[in-house]
Amino acid sequence: MKIIIIGSGLAGLSAGYKLCKSNEITIFEKDAEIGGMAASYCQEYNGKEYFIEKYYHHIFRSDSELIALIKELGLEKQMLWIKGTNAYFVDGKNYPMNTPAEILRFSPLSFTDLVKLGLLVLRIKTINDKTPYDRMRARDWIIAGAGRSVYENFFAPLMKSKFGDNAENVSAAWLIGRVKIRADRGKEGEKLGYLRYGFNSLLEALSREITSNGGKILKNKEVTEIVINDNKVQGVITDGNFVICDAVISTVEPRVLDTLTKGKLENLRETLLSIRYQGTACALIGLEKRLMVDGNYWLNIKADVPFGAVIEHTNFMLLEDYGEHLVYITSYFQDEKDFRWIQKEEEVLDSYLRGLEKMFPGFSRADVHWAKLFRRMDTAPVYEQGYLQKVLPFAAGPSGLYLAGMFSSTNYPERSMNGSVKAGFEAANFLK
Ligand SMILES: Cc1cc2nc3c(=O)[nH]c(=O)nc-3n(C[C@H](O)[C@H](O)[C@H](O)COP(=O)(O)OP(=O)(O)OC[C@H]3O[C@@H](n4cnc5c(N)ncnc54)[C@H](O)[C@@H]3O)c2cc1C
After folding, report:
1. Bridge partners for 386 per DSSP
2. What is the pLDDT of residue 187?
3. pLDDT at 181 over 80
4. Cα-to-chain-centroid distance, residue 129
5. Distance of CA 371 from the midpoint of ligand 1 (Å)
6. Centroid of ligand 1 to alpha carbon of 57 (angstroms)
7. Banded model confidence at residue 325, pLDDT cuts 50, 70, 90
8. Which residues are CB-neighbours of 421 under 8 A, at least 6 positions away?
9. Which of 16, 84, 168, 315 is most open to solvent, judged by the fewest CB atoms within 10 Å of its CB?
10. What is the pLDDT of the chain when averaged over all its residues?
11. Counting Cβ atoms within 10 Å, is residue 221 exposed (0-12), middle (13-18) or buried (19+)?
């Protein structure tokens, strides 16, 4: 069968990998490199070249499909499980947040509030069916269950840094799913996984498998239309040319899918148009010195700075693999009017570096070897109230059209590499 896959992110590559042995696969990717959100780039410092993700990435123990895929591709020896330490920066102070004992020392909350927070987390752990919580706002549910102070002093800044102005509309189902994933960390704190030398090895291994089985991965090729006639996929248009095929797997954002199908997915149209995505503006800097001298990997932030988290990759991964300290400074944003989207790269970087100067007295711009900004608009669905009803099916309706990506059920309540690998496999199953 001749199958076209739109997008070379993990969903597209995973689907291609599953199908390439018995089908003719072509992947069209609009970007200059493969990988989508999980793409890396090659950085050079002091004569050493290394790959690093444009956006910070790690995996969880529960990411079973991704871990199995890593093994299947022979990359298991690169897999490292390391304690990634977290902290919360509130009103100029760092609070470690790795163990229950540390969380109990989070002084912005009173002892009574900490007890309420603990009880809320215990309650969340007992919830198995999230569906009834999909129509409730997380904000209202937290306030009803643990009080306003717990919401305002603990959850609100975290949700704000994740969803910006949409934070208040995020569903309780999302919050429950998220807390369940993160709360299972034991007394010692959670171990996170990383593929030594970067997830680029995974992308390359998948791409090698596809091409060595005769598949094609074509970069800088944007699909502008999925041609559907008589409720059946006929092919796609790219660079003005019609390319015929038997089936298409689309991994693109729902609103883009609506444009590509010229509004022909009538059953899904309303849903496609109602799923909102948010953008990310993530700076990556190479540094002479460690930024978070206490060894923190991940710092959530409640402060007057234009970013929501600082992630020191080399406080997690081995410094010797890079030869310099690597720090991500990141923020989600909601629309194309945001300054992080419209300002020039140097301006956004400057505002981020000013934020670091404010937060870290030991930080000096003289220690910055280089700084880059990666930003795009389509980096995550916003899990608003009622989102569960919007999760898209793997089979789109017209014969031969399948969907896999961040909008799939496998990526709820949090989109992840694992969720997209699983989505790619699920869509591929329809065509095996
Ligand atoms: C800031 C950030 C941090 C993250 N951190 C983690 C983490 O720590 N752990 C984790 O597991 N996950 C993380 N993720 C999520 C993870 O990267 C994604 O869930 C996953 O990579 C998405 O894969 P995908 O294939 O579904 O979508 P995408 O990666 O978005 O792939 C879609 C591809 O389609 C291409 N495309 C779009 N339109 C067209 C078109 N018309 N024609 C051709 N090509 C097109 C795009 O360029 C893209 O390459 C993070 C994501 C971001 C943005």
Report:
1. none
2. 58
3. no
4. 24
5. 22
6. 11
7. very high
8. 10, 11, 14, 65, 66, 69
9. 168
10. 94
11. buried
Residues of the chain with CATH 3.90.660.10: 191-195+277-381
Read off the pLDDT of residues 110-161 as tens digits, 9 standing for 90 and up: 999 999 999 999 999 999 888 899 999 999 999 999 999 999 999 998 898 8
Q: What spacing in Å lies between the alpha carbon of 393 and ligand 1's midpoint? A: 18
Which amino acid, one-letter code, is at 300?
Answer: N
CATH code given to domain 191-195+277-381: 3.90.660.10
- The residue whose CA has the least distance to atom 51 of ligand 1 is 37
Q: What is the CATH number of domain 2-57+199-275+386-429?
A: 3.50.50.60
Q: Which residues pair with 381 in a beta bridge?
A: 277
Given a cut of 90, whether residue 330 has pLDDT beyond it is: yes
Residues of the chain with CATH 3.50.50.60: 2-57+199-275+386-429
Token output for 256: 């883009």
**pTM, two decimal places:** 0.95
Closest-CA residue to 59 (of 318, 420, 314, 427): 420
Residue 258 is predicted with a pLDDT of 98
State which H helix or E strand residue 380 sits in: strand 368-381
